[in-house]
Amino acid sequence: MSATTADRCVYLFFRPDYTPAYVGMGRRQVRYTRHISGSHNPHLANIISNASKPLPFIVVADGLTREIASALEVALIKSIGREDLGLGPLVNRTNGGDGVAGRSGWFHQDETKEKIRVAHIGKRHSPQTIEKMRRAHFGKSIVKLRGRKQDPDVVSRRASRRRGQHWWHTPDGQNYLAHAARNDTDSLGRVTFFWTGLYWWSTPDGAEYKSKEPRNPDDVHGRITRRNQTLNKERV
After folding, report:
1. DSSP per position, 47-108
2. Dihedral in degrees, nearest 10, Cα atoms 157, 159, 161, 165
3. b (16+ CB within 10 A) / e for 185-207
4. pLDDT tens digits for range 81-128
5. Would you say 28 and 9 are in contact if contact means Cβ atoms under 8 Å apart?
6. How far apart are CA 125 and CA 81, in angstroms?
7. What pTM was computed for the model?
8. Is 206 helix (H, G, I), strand (E, B) or coil?
9. Which are the contacts of 181, defined by CB distance < 8 A and separation ≥ 6?
């Protein structure tokens, strides 16, 4: 739709005591009628749910272009004042217009980010959570992710972190990426294990071993892990 189409309006919601509550902009009656049934703004939604009757509102101006409506919305919010900034009664979370400038309550402060980071150090998902995530993603295709290009800044930062690092291999079969070896026994280079023709076999008592052929007729093909045990119980 053209930006010059005059199909926008600016409206103002009031609290039950007729105190200004919210300034909005939308395409004529579509926007503010949706606010009446339920708002994406939690503060306005709380006011609507606690009111014993529909909130009073007025259409400040109608038949406006998007640019003019945005400018009028910004001017009204600035003149009345936002509650979260301590400047007025409005529960708007932005300064209006495009809905981004002056956004509040959406970004964590550095102190909050640090607290969240510290609180999650060392935490691991429980087996129940891992199983729920597995079920939620089971059968989902990753075709939509193919061909997507990463942000050049992300690629550059990752490359700068890895620049000068080498793959190292530990005697117990672990690989890691670092600038220098962690131990004198680690060797330079990444060791990749190739299939040797061996299969996993499981005995009735739960033991597992690798071999080309089963040692006993009762042994079954495959490795019995916790995940497989859970799947087998579901199939039964």
Report:
1. HHHH-SSPPPEEEEEEEE-HHHHHHHHHHHHHHH-BTTTTSSSB--SS-STTS-TT--SSS-
2. 180
3. ebeeeeeeeeeeeeeebbeeeee
4. 999 888 999 999 888 876 554 454 456 678 888 888 888 888 888 889
5. yes
6. 44
7. 0.43
8. coil
9. 168, 187, 188
Token pair 């891992």 in the structure block, residue: 130
Comparing CA positions, the residue from 102, 52, 112, 59 lying closest to residue 81 is 102
> Using a CB cutoff of 8 Å and minimum separation of 24, what contacts does 1-4 make?
3/65, 3/66, 3/67, 4/65
pLDDT tens digit sequence for 140-168: 665 555 666 778 888 888 888 778 888 88
Q: Provide, rounded to the nearest whole percent, the portion of the chain with pLDDT above 70.
A: 75
What is the spatial distance between Cα 70 and Cα 82, in angstroms, rounded to a whole number? 17
Which element (helix H / strand E) includes 9? strand 8-14
Cβ atoms of 64 and 6 closer than 8 Å: yes
What is the Cα gyration radius of the chain?
30
Report whether 25 contacts 9 (CB < 8 A): yes
CB of 208 closer than 8 Å to CB of 215: no
Q: Ramachandran region of residue 70, left (φ > 0), alpha (ψ -120 to 50) or beta? A: alpha
CB 9 within 8 A of CB 64: yes
How many CB atoms are located within 10 Å of the residue 166 CB? 14
Question: What is the token pair recorded at 154?
Answer: 């992300």
Distance CA 150, CA 162 (A): 17
Residue that the structure tokens 């932005």 belong to: 94
111 burial class (0-12, 13-18, 19+ CB within 10 angstroms)? exposed
